[in-house]
Amino acid sequence: MTRLVLVIPALLALAPLAGAQGTQARRRAQDAGLRYSVPQTWERVPAPSDMRAAQYRIPGASAAADDDAEVVLFYFGEGQGGTTEANLERWYGQFTQPDGKPSRDAAKVTKRTVNGLQVAAVDLSGTYTAQMRPGEGAKPRPNTRMLAAAIEGAHGPWFFRIVGPEATVAAAAPDFDQLLLSLEAHQ
User: Fold this and answer.
1) Pairing of strands 184-185, 34-39
2) pLDDT band for position 34 (cuts 50, 70, 90)
3) Cβ atoms of 107 and 124 closer than 8 Å
4) Residue 24, pLDDT score
5) Residue 39, SS3?
6) Which among 108, 109, 176, 183 is positioned nearest to 152, based on CA atoms?
């Protein structure tokens, strides 16, 4: 009995850390031949174009809509959408840095294999200068962060991207990493 009493406070002390590391309740999803898991807090929303196989909204810290971040799974068809390197270059070009240095130098790129899929992920902050949604004009968005990944495998490639305010995306970063670790090709 004494052991159980000691374990419960220890587990309760670790509970806040679990949420901070992206271990909140998750649900499985399957889109465009790819399986993955997302947090329950990410709201699935209708995708405004056929290039977007799935789209989610990550609620920001405040109730303001401009505090939210957008998560998109892009799929252009088997063998379509460009190489990983071409997409990394495109993503670098969507940002400018406050110090004027190239965004390529500010980007953090990681490459790994997940369930037989080659995943190249980029983490980049600065002023976002690309169009957020189809039909919306491109206007500079300072203090923006993007987490994106090019996923290569049979029937791919696929591209995940989160874009939003730095604070919102920072809070979602552990969940994005968990999403990438959950990737599985499915046909």
Assistant:
1) antiparallel
2) very high
3) yes
4) 74
5) strand
6) 183
